[in-house]
Amino acid sequence: MEQPARQYDSGASTPSANAAAARTLVVDLEGGLLRSELAYEALFADVGRSFSGLRARGMAAFGDVLAQAEIDYAHLPYDPTVLNQALAARARGEKIYLVAGRFARHATGIAAHLGFDGVVAPADLAAGDNLPFDRGSIDRIQSGGGSVANLKTWAKALRVYQYAKNTLVFVPVITAHQLNLATLGYALLAFLAFSACASGAYLMNDLLDLAADRQHPTKRHRALAAGDLPISSALWAIPALWLFAVAAGLCISPLFLGVLGAYLATTIAYSLVLKRKMLVDVVTLAGLYTLRIIAGAVGVGVVLSEWLLIFSLFVFTSLALIKRFSELSMRESVGLADPSNRDYRITDLHIIGAMAAASAMNAVTVFSLYVSSSAVTPLYSRPWMLWLLNPLLLYWFGRALMMAHRREMPDDPILYTFRDGASRITVAAMICIMLAAI
Asked: Is residue 190 within 8 Å of residue 169, measured between CB atoms?
């Protein structure tokens, strides 16, 4: 973030109490104290109510709707340096005021929450009119033009590390043994399309979850929740990413674009509604992972095995349940209440863990049936070697469940697999066995 321009001088020596009391510090709200845009904060404080108000009263009442929005002033992204300077001035006996040109109700609420003495308008400050203090005794912390996101912030906001999930589009190419430049090229383009589509969806989800994320012990550090990325930047990035995904999809095939559209529609439905429905969210997440595999098959033109489809569905259902288990166990360990944006309770932990284990064992059973079937013979010269994958699958699922139970797994078990040394070794061993069986 660019540091705000300050006309505030703390002085080399400590002023007397009387001199301090005579001084007044004024702080610009937007771009100075607040690391965000107040209009967008009001819009996304309660998206459903905001858009219901716009439908009922029309765009002409847009400003009134935002002015009446219910914002959680306690969890807004304030600039810690500016806030600490203001509180230090208050501790020395100075008066402190916010400078706000719009949304007086919200500015007054922020001032009251932070213990400021009041709010003044920029026009009154410039003209010297209607001020509750002597204009000649002002120190000011002014706006520095807002925050400018760097590449690291964008990578964090776009969840570039989540692109590992999109490598699932390569699975059909590998399992069908169609490894050539043409198929790998289409698979790579499919990977890029899904990555752009998913990044746009992550930004949209973060906008809709701003209030909940700011009350979460880890999600409050997300780029939008922390104010590192301006909301306005996210709003233009979302359509840009989706347009790129559509263009990439058209370069593959109309059918692939249809699968990508189904993925995006399901993702939007998940962000708006489905993630708040008990177990519906788990099935939806498992379906979204499986859609990546379906898209990979469609993109390169290979026939998708029903064995792979069923196996994937059980695997991803188990991982989605482990994800919910990790989230709830984290809340339990730090003494938080039940999540407000999920239809789960901390008391559900045991049943969620049991369902995750059951789904994992079903996946291993399906794989065993596949190895026993006639579908294996045309693809592998040494199919008996595939039986060696069963103990590795049992170990990997069991380890994931144990780590989640010990509160040693972050929210996402798929990302944990890429970071955990034992999991990486297990996956590498599985790949070596599959290659040896061909």
From this structure: yes
Classify burial at 123, counting beta carbons within 10 Å of its beta carbon; exposed 0-12, middle 13-18, buried 19 or more: exposed
pTM of the model: 0.76
SS (H, E, C) 53-84: HHHHHCHHHHHHHHHCCCCCHHHCCECHHHHH
CB 140 within 8 A of CB 82: no
Tell me if 430 sits within 8 A of 387, measured CB to CB: no
Q: What pLDDT, on a 0 to 100 scale, did the predictor assign at position 271?
A: 81
Per the listing, tokens 């990977």 go with: 191
Q: How confident is the model at residue 203 (pLDDT cuts 50, 70, 90)?
A: very high
pLDDT per residue over 310-364, tens digit each? 999 999 999 999 988 988 888 887 777 777 667 888 888 899 999 999 999 999 9
Alpha helices by DSSP H, listed for 115-230, are 122-127, 151-157, 171-175, 181-208, 210-214, 223-226
Q: At what angle do helices 231-252 and 181-208 cross, to 10 degrees?
A: 150
Start-to-end CA distance of the chain, whole Å, equals 53
* Strand duo 95-99 + 6-7: pairing: unpaired
DSSP 229: S
> In sequence order, which residues have a C-beta less than 8 Å from that of residue 151 and are 6 or more positions away?
none
Question: What is the Cα 141 distance to its own chain's centre?
Answer: 32
Quote the CA–CA distance of 429 and 244 in Å, as a whole number.
Answer: 36
Q: How far apart are CA 97 and CA 24, in angstroms?
A: 8
User: Could you report the per-residue pLDDT of 32-91, keeping only the tens digit for each?
Assistant: 899 888 888 888 876 655 555 555 555 555 677 777 788 888 889 998 889 999 888 888
Position 11 confidence tier, pLDDT thresholds 50, 70, 90? very low
Q: Which residues contact 199 (CB under 8 A, 6 or more apart)?
A: 158, 159, 160, 241
Q: With contact defined as beta carbons under 8 Å apart, do 179 and 173 qualify?
A: yes
**SS3 (DSSP) at 119:** strand
Q: Are 417 and 392 in contact (CB under 8 A)?
A: no
pLDDT tens-digit readout, 226-273: 888 889 899 999 999 999 999 999 999 999 999 999 999 998 898 888
> Quick one: which of 307, 427, 320 has its CA closest to 367?
307
The tokens for 332 are 């339990």
111 vs 102: CA distance, rounded Å: 14
